[in-house]
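Encode chain A's predicted structure.
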Amino acid sequence: MGSPITNASGVNLNRASEEELARIGGLGEERAKRMIRTRPVLH
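Encoded structure for chain A:
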């Protein structure tokens, strides 16, 4: 995994990969997985 992102500015939370989400400080791997699992399908 890459280095932590301390400022999520510019990261699209609706389209970011699990790895990108997990790198956001304070979010963590489990919450990133849950966010992806529950996000709506984007067309």
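The CA atoms of residues 18 and 34 lie 9 Å apart.
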